[in-house]
Structures are given as structure tokens and as C-alpha cells.
Amino acid sequence: MHDKIRRLKPSEFPEAVKWAAKEGWNPGCADAEIFFNADPEGFWGAFDKKGMAAVISAVQYSSDFGFVGFYICREDRRGSGLGYRLWQTVLQDSVMKTIGLDGVVDQQENYTKSGFEFAHRNIRFGGVVKAPAPNDADLFDLLIDDIAVVDAFEQTCNLFGESRIEFLRGWIGNENHTAMGLKGPMGLRGYGVIRPCEEGHKVGPLFAPTQEDAKILFEALLASRADQSGKVFLDVPEPNQAALALATGYDMQPEFETARMYKGDAPTLDLNMIYGISSFELG
């Protein structure tokens, strides 16, 4: 069988996002465009006579750091070795010194064989949550003009492995996303984003120095929704006990988990400030 591996075109990537939705990953409504624009060279597919048969993303934030996601094989080609061949083709010659991923439970052993080491679990909490809009003088709407401040905040506080300006441009600048911050010494002491998804809304990232600040941001983001009736999801790094307490305090329930894994030197992240990660696909 003659299979072809190549980079995806912008028009092809939305199909990969549909596959992710079918897998139950509940992608955001605007994820396709935002993710692709973060690194248009970082999305790959394997094609057979039926069309796209497997996909993977390897988004490069710099020569030092990247993130793997969207690793999905079409159902009729699973077990054929095609997915692994795509994985090898994309990653074996990577120049990135450190690569992160959020692996589903049944693939963690395979990732270990490829040189990835376990860092921590992430737990997706979900629930129907309603909260009054908090009245806090430090709250403000984050706009696209603020992305340099946000990027500097993330790097100074060790909240992500690398600068991610292009990602933030889409994440904060999208008209269907709501981003809010809390004023602080660097212009910002915490921030969060909420976005509509296939089902309900996801909050992520949610970065704050204290549980109290995280609660203020979380409730402000919840209150910004036009539809207050749907489910809300929050992806929490398990080592942050205050974040787990925040989620369970709103009667949110664990629904899904991943393992954050790294190949190469893992970045030193301040997990105590990470109450919700941005995404399982791009970190």
C-alpha cells in the first residue's frame, strides 16, 4: 500500500480537529485556526487512497522547545503501523531539544519507549458550574495588545516552557474567547481564558499566585458566558492540590486524565501557579 506522509495544508487541518472531537477530546470551536497558526509547519498527515489516514502535530515554539499532540489514526488503519511510522517520520529528525506531550493513559508506555519521561498527571474536571461575577478592582479584560505582557508574565513565572507569542495572539485575540487578568507588579499577577467548545466551555489557561486569585478569575470567566447552563471543563495538574480543591469545591468531577511527559530536559514549571493548563494539544 502506497502511503504518503507530508505536512498538512491549512484546509486539511480542520478534519484533524473533527477527528479529535470524535475521540471525545472536545476541542474548542476556534481551535483549528489558532493551533495551525501557532506553527503552520508543525502539522503532518499520512495519506492513503481513501485520504487522510493519520495525523500528528509537533508544534515548535523554538529550537529548544516544542509540543506534540493530535496523534490520531483513522479507525480502519489502526494497528497497521502507519501511525507509528508517521510518529517516527516527524519526530526522529526533530531539532527540538525538549518535546512535551499530554499522553492518553493507554499510550503512556509507548511514549516511554520513545524516550519520553513522566512528569505529572493532568486531570480534566467537568461540571455545570454557575457563579456570580466577582467584584474586584484588580480584574480587567485582556486584549490582543496585552500579549507581550502576558508572554513576559508566563516566562518570568515559569508557567510555560518557552515564549509563545503566536499562540497567544490567537488565544487572547479570538473574538469568541474571553481573557481576563488581575493587575500586579509586572502589570499582571494572574490571568485566565475561557472558550466555547464542542460541548460547553473550557477554562485554560488559569494561572494565579493563590487559590483566592484563581477563584476570582474562574468566577469572572464563568460569568462572562452568554449561556450559563452548559458544562465547564478545567484541566488541572494533579500536583497542585489547591487547584484540585478549587475544582472539587464547585462539585466538578474528574472525567479524563493524561500524563504530561517530556523528552529532553523538562522545563521547571511553577505548578503551584497553574490551576488550569491551556490545552492538551499544544501545552
Which parts are unreliable, with pLDDT below 50 for 5 consecutive residues or more?
none
Distance between the termini: 34 Å
Major sheet size, sense and barrel closure: 13 strands, mixed
Q: How many β-strand runs? A: 13
Alpha-beta content class: alpha+beta
DSSP helix fraction: 25-40%
- Characterize the overall form: globular
**Helix segment tally:** 8
Overall pLDDT: 94
Question: In sequence order, what are the helices and strands, one letter per element?
Answer: EHHEEEHEHEEHHEEEHEHEE
Strand content: 25-35%
Radius of gyration: 18 Å
How would you describe this protein?
- The structure is a single chain.
- With 283 residues, this protein is α+β, with helices and mostly antiparallel strands.
- It is 27% helix and 31% strand.
- The protein is built from eight helices and 13 strands.
- Strands 1, 2, 3, 4, 5, 6, 7, 8, 9, 10, 11, 12 and 13 form a 13-stranded mixed sheet that branches.
- Strand 8 (178-182) and strand 9 (190-196) form a beta hairpin.
- Helix 1 (13-22) crosses helix 2 (31-38), helix 2 (31-38) runs antiparallel to helix 6 (165-173) and helix 5 (147-156) packs across helix 6.
- It is globular.
- The model has no long low-confidence stretch (mean pLDDT 94).
Q: What would a concise description of this structure say?
A:
The chain is an alpha+beta fold and 283 residues long. Helices cover 27% and strands 31% of the residues.
